[in-house]
Design goal:
The chain has 353 residues and is α+β, with helices and mostly antiparallel strands. The chain is built from twelve helices and ten strands. The chain has helices at residues 2-11, 15-26, 31-38, 44-83, 102-116, 130-133, 144-148, 171-177, 232-247, 300-305, 322-330, 343-349, and strands spanning 120-121, 127-128, 164-165, 197-206, 217-227, 254-261, 264-275, 282-283, 288-298, 314-321. Strands 1, 4, 5, 6, 7, 8, 9 and 10 form an eight-stranded mixed beta sheet that branches. Helix 3 packs antiparallel against helix 4 (44-83). The mean pLDDT is 89. The structure holds phenylalanine. Phenylalanine binds at residues 168, 170, 222, 261, 264, 294-296, 317-319. Keywords: Aminoacyl-tRNA synthetase, ATP-binding, Cytoplasm, Ligase, Magnesium, Metal-binding, Nucleotide-binding, Protein biosynthesis. Its EC number is 6.1.1.20. Tetramer of two alpha and two beta subunits.
Length: 353
């Protein structure tokens, strides 16, 4: 029987034939199964003698079947590899290419312009504490300005401290100025440095606000310069030079309107001239004004809070709304699609990498 089964196994030409052999030998009414069943009717001595023989036969046949199966499968694969060829001349299916998000593009453009003027880039955490976002920036305790920012607060921690999502990039001013020997809390967090300081801070900011020109998350680019003898003229030159380069138009007119921020004194907002008479906004000159940036001279209290002597050092700071600036430059009517990931909008306004 063994010779007969072994021959049948090695003679099986394909998987189906092999399966038929397996059923005929090891299946419910197969020949080996019948032998195994016959053990039941034997005397104990007969069983002791025949049992090992029959079990051995069953194991050898099962092994032979498994080996034959593996051989058949690899032969089948070889045959397929030999038969199939790849036509490398066929055009590949078109690949959809991503694009740079307009906000990131605008941020890169802004950083590039400031980098040329000698500014370094600093970053800070999105999750801030009250000290960096408000207190160090001269917001008086319980001052309504804290509410004015429509702050997203976290639940207080075990120590009672209430973290928040930063409402502006200004807390990074504090992180950059605070002289500390401690290593930064994370690699992207600016650690304090001695003046002179010249940094820009691109980043995400958060306020509870939502309409055509406000989204709960938006982007700012902060600037900070600290050195000896810094005055408002430096601030004015820096911002005027920036808008001329950013909007790529010569002779952009600008004006500084008095404003209030707790962390700057004096404070101002800079407007640039524009012309809306043609339906869309033309930036440069005209009878209308567009607000583009908040700014001012760093308040002496802020310098003191960060361990810098205001009698030795002065500085200016400014904060741009990045998404807003992008809307103006690229003529987008609504801010919200910036954050909606609609690929039709993205491929219209996106920039190829
Ligand atoms: N942090 C201010 C805001 O978010 C902008 C600003 C930055 C103003 C720096 C002055 C100086 O509105």
């Amino acid at each position: 029987l063994e010779a007969e089964l072994t021959a049948a196994v090695s003679g099986a030409a394909d998987a189906n034939a092999l399966e038929a052999v397996r059923v005929a030998a090891l299946g419910k009414s197969g020949s080996i199964s019948a032998l195994l069943k016959s053990l039941g009717g034997m005397t104990p001595d007969g069983r002791r003698e025949q049992g090992p023989l029959i079990n051995g036969l069953r194991d050898r046949i099962a092994t032979a079947i498994a080996e034959r199966k593996a051989a058949l499968e690899s032969a089948e694969l070889d045959a397929r590899l030999a038969a199939e060829t790849l036509d490398l001349t066929l055009p590949a299916p078109p690949r959809r290419k991503g694009s740079v998000h307009p906000t990131m593009q605008v941020m890169d453009e802004m950083v590039a312009i400031f980098a040329e003027m000698g500014f370094a880039v600093a970053e800070g955490p999105d999750i801030e504490d009250d000290f960096h976002n408000f207190t160090a920036l001269n917001f008086p305790p319980k001052h309504p300005a804290r509410e004015m920012h429509d702050t997203f607060f976290f639940n207080p921690g075990p120590d009672g401290e209430r973290k928040l999502l930063r409402t502006h990039t200004s807390p990074v001013q504090v992180r950059a100025m605070q002289k500390t020997n401690a290593p930064p809390a994370a690699p992207w967090i600016a650690s304090g440095q001695e003046p002179p300081i010249r940094i820009v801070v691109p980043g995400r900011t958060y306020r509870m606000d939502s309409d055509a020109t406000h989204t709960p998350m938006f982007h700012q680019l902060e600037g900070l310069v600290i050195d000896k003898g810094i005055h408002m003229g430096h601030l004015k030159w820096t911002l005027e030079t920036f808008v001329t380069r950013f909007f790529e138009v010569e002779g952009v007119v600008s004006r500084f309107r008095p404003h209030h921020f707790p962390f700057t004194e004096p404070s101002a907002e800079m407007d640039i001239g524009c012309d809306r008479s043609g339906g869309e906004i033309k930036i440069g000159q005209g009878s209308d004004w567009l607000e583009v940036v908040g700014c001012g001279m760093v308040h002496p209290n802020v310098l003191r809070n960060c361990g810098i002597d205001p009698d030795v050092y002065q500085g200016f700071a400014f904060g741009f709304g990045v998404d807003r600036l992008g809307m103006l430059k690229y003529g987008m009517p609504d801010l919200r699609p910036m954050f909606e990931s609609d690929t039709r909008w993205l491929s219209h306004y996106g920039f190829s990498a």
